[in-house]
Protein backbone atom coordinates (compact mmCIF):
# COMPACT_ATOMS: atom_id res chain seq x y z
CA UNK A 1 0.00 0.00 0.00
CA UNK A 2 1.58 3.29 -1.13
CA UNK A 3 2.14 5.32 2.05
CA UNK A 4 2.78 8.93 3.03
CA UNK A 5 4.35 9.51 6.44
CA UNK A 6 3.96 12.98 7.96
CA UNK A 7 6.05 14.05 10.95
CA UNK A 8 6.19 17.25 12.97
CA UNK A 9 8.78 15.95 15.43
CA UNK A 10 8.30 17.21 18.96
CA UNK A 11 6.77 20.48 17.80
CA UNK A 12 3.22 21.76 17.55
CA UNK A 13 2.33 22.25 13.88
CA UNK A 14 -1.46 21.86 13.79
CA UNK A 15 -1.68 23.84 10.57
CA UNK A 16 0.22 21.10 8.71
CA UNK A 17 -1.86 18.29 10.24
CA UNK A 18 -5.12 20.08 9.44
CA UNK A 19 -3.94 20.85 5.90
CA UNK A 20 -2.71 17.33 5.12
CA UNK A 21 -6.01 15.80 6.26
CA UNK A 22 -8.17 18.22 4.28
CA UNK A 23 -10.38 16.78 1.55
CA UNK A 24 -8.48 18.71 -1.12
CA UNK A 25 -5.06 17.37 -0.12
CA UNK A 26 -6.21 13.79 0.45
CA UNK A 27 -7.86 13.83 -3.00
CA UNK A 28 -4.54 14.92 -4.55
CA UNK A 29 -2.66 12.22 -2.64
CA UNK A 30 -5.17 9.61 -3.76
CA UNK A 31 -4.92 10.81 -7.38
CA UNK A 32 -1.14 10.32 -7.13
CA UNK A 33 -1.66 6.72 -6.00
CA UNK A 34 -1.18 7.08 -2.25
CA UNK A 35 -3.57 4.94 -0.23
CA UNK A 36 -2.33 5.35 3.35
CA UNK A 37 -1.48 8.39 5.46
CA UNK A 38 0.42 8.00 8.74
CA UNK A 39 0.66 11.11 10.92
CA UNK A 40 2.99 11.82 13.82
CA UNK A 41 1.37 14.94 15.31
CA UNK A 42 3.70 15.76 18.21
CA UNK A 43 2.46 18.23 20.81
CA UNK A 44 -0.28 19.65 18.61
CA UNK A 45 -3.82 20.02 19.83
CA UNK A 46 -5.29 18.46 16.67
CA UNK A 47 -5.35 14.64 16.58
CA UNK A 48 -7.55 13.57 13.67
CA UNK A 49 -9.86 10.58 13.92
CA UNK A 50 -8.86 7.58 11.84
CA UNK A 51 -12.14 7.78 9.92
CA UNK A 52 -11.94 11.54 9.23
CA UNK A 53 -10.45 11.15 5.72
CA UNK A 54 -12.74 9.64 3.13
CA UNK A 55 -10.16 9.40 0.33
CA UNK A 56 -7.30 7.67 2.14
CA UNK A 57 -6.58 5.31 5.05
CA UNK A 58 -5.46 7.33 8.08
CA UNK A 59 -3.41 6.52 11.18
CA UNK A 60 -2.36 9.17 13.70
CA UNK A 61 -0.32 9.24 16.89
CA UNK A 62 1.54 11.79 18.99
CA UNK A 63 4.86 10.12 19.77
CA UNK A 64 6.65 6.76 19.52
CA UNK A 65 10.00 5.65 20.88
CA UNK A 66 11.18 5.55 17.26
CA UNK A 67 9.68 6.59 13.94
CA UNK A 68 12.26 4.58 11.99
CA UNK A 69 9.72 1.92 10.96
CA UNK A 70 7.25 4.54 9.71
CA UNK A 71 10.04 6.15 7.70
CA UNK A 72 11.11 2.81 6.20
CA UNK A 73 7.52 1.93 5.21
CA UNK A 74 6.89 5.34 3.61
CA UNK A 75 6.94 6.01 -0.11
CA UNK A 76 6.91 9.77 0.60
CA UNK A 77 7.79 11.67 3.76
CA UNK A 78 6.27 15.04 4.50
CA UNK A 79 8.01 16.77 7.38
CA UNK A 80 8.36 20.02 9.22
CA UNK A 81 11.72 21.62 8.48
CA UNK A 82 13.48 20.61 11.69
CA UNK A 83 17.09 19.58 11.06
CA UNK A 84 16.72 16.24 12.89
CA UNK A 85 13.61 15.22 10.99
CA UNK A 86 15.16 16.22 7.66
CA UNK A 87 18.36 14.29 8.37
CA UNK A 88 16.48 11.16 9.46
CA UNK A 89 14.31 11.14 6.33
CA UNK A 90 17.18 11.94 3.95
CA UNK A 91 19.44 9.33 5.57
CA UNK A 92 16.76 6.72 4.88
CA UNK A 93 16.88 7.62 1.19
CA UNK A 94 13.19 8.49 1.04
CA UNK A 95 11.65 11.27 -1.07
CA UNK A 96 11.10 14.24 1.22
CA UNK A 97 8.74 17.18 1.03
CA UNK A 98 9.41 19.73 3.76
CA UNK A 99 6.63 22.05 4.86
CA UNK A 100 8.09 25.19 6.39
CA UNK A 101 6.14 26.71 9.26
CA UNK A 102 6.09 30.32 8.07
CA UNK A 103 4.38 31.41 11.29
CA UNK A 104 7.60 30.97 13.31
CA UNK A 105 9.61 34.07 14.19
CA UNK A 106 13.33 34.14 13.32
CA UNK A 107 12.75 31.01 11.27
CA UNK A 108 15.91 29.17 10.20
CA UNK A 109 13.81 26.31 8.84
CA UNK A 110 13.31 28.15 5.57
CA UNK A 111 17.07 28.60 5.07
CA UNK A 112 17.68 24.90 5.70
CA UNK A 113 14.88 23.86 3.32
CA UNK A 114 16.07 26.26 0.62
CA UNK A 115 19.65 24.96 0.76
CA UNK A 116 18.65 21.28 0.72
CA UNK A 117 16.29 22.08 -2.17
CA UNK A 118 19.04 23.95 -4.06
CA UNK A 119 21.15 20.80 -3.72
CA UNK A 120 18.18 18.75 -5.09
CA UNK A 121 17.75 16.67 -1.92
CA UNK A 122 14.14 17.64 -1.19
CA UNK A 123 11.14 19.70 -2.21
CA UNK A 124 9.70 22.35 0.09
CA UNK A 125 6.62 24.50 0.44
CA UNK A 126 4.38 26.11 3.05
CA UNK A 127 0.92 24.98 4.09
CA UNK A 128 -0.63 27.47 1.70
CA UNK A 129 1.19 25.93 -1.28
CA UNK A 130 1.08 22.27 -0.16
CA UNK A 131 -1.81 21.21 -2.40
CA UNK A 132 -0.23 22.64 -5.55
CA UNK A 133 3.21 21.26 -4.63
CA UNK A 134 1.76 17.77 -4.18
CA UNK A 135 -0.17 18.10 -7.43
CA UNK A 136 2.90 19.10 -9.50
CA UNK A 137 5.87 17.53 -7.69
CA UNK A 138 8.40 15.44 -9.63
CA UNK A 139 10.23 13.21 -7.17
CA UNK A 140 12.46 11.78 -9.91
CA UNK A 141 14.63 14.92 -9.83
CA UNK A 142 15.67 14.42 -6.20
CA UNK A 143 19.29 13.45 -5.50
CA UNK A 144 20.31 11.21 -2.58
CA UNK A 145 21.85 12.79 0.49
CA UNK A 146 25.01 10.91 1.34
CA UNK A 147 24.38 9.22 4.73
CA UNK A 148 26.96 8.62 7.40
CA UNK A 149 28.61 12.01 7.04
CA UNK A 150 27.63 13.84 10.25
CA UNK A 151 30.56 16.27 9.90
CA UNK A 152 29.42 17.17 6.40
CA UNK A 153 25.86 17.70 7.64
CA UNK A 154 27.12 19.90 10.49
CA UNK A 155 29.17 21.93 8.00
CA UNK A 156 26.15 22.12 5.71
CA UNK A 157 23.95 23.41 8.57
CA UNK A 158 26.57 26.01 9.47
CA UNK A 159 26.65 27.16 5.83
CA UNK A 160 22.86 27.17 5.44
CA UNK A 161 22.36 29.13 8.65
CA UNK A 162 25.18 31.58 7.92
CA UNK A 163 27.39 30.54 10.82
CA UNK A 164 30.48 30.37 8.61
UniProtKB/TrEMBL annotation:
It comes from the Eukaryota. GO terms for biological process: dolichol-linked oligosaccharide biosynthetic process. It holds the Pfam family Glyco_tran_28_C. It is found in: Endoplasmic reticulum. The keyword Glycosyltransferase applies. Residues 3-150 form the Glycosyl transferase family 28 C-terminal domain. GO terms for molecular function: N-acetylglucosaminyldiphosphodolichol N-acetylglucosaminyltransferase activity. InterPro entries: Alg13-like, Glyco_trans_28_C. Its EC number is 2.4.1.141. GO terms for cellular component: endoplasmic reticulum. The keyword Transferase applies. Its main location: endoplasmic reticulum. Keywords: Endoplasmic reticulum, Glycosyltransferase, Transferase. Belongs to the glycosyltransferase 28 family. This is UDP-N-acetylglucosamine transferase subunit ALG13. The gene is zgc:92907.
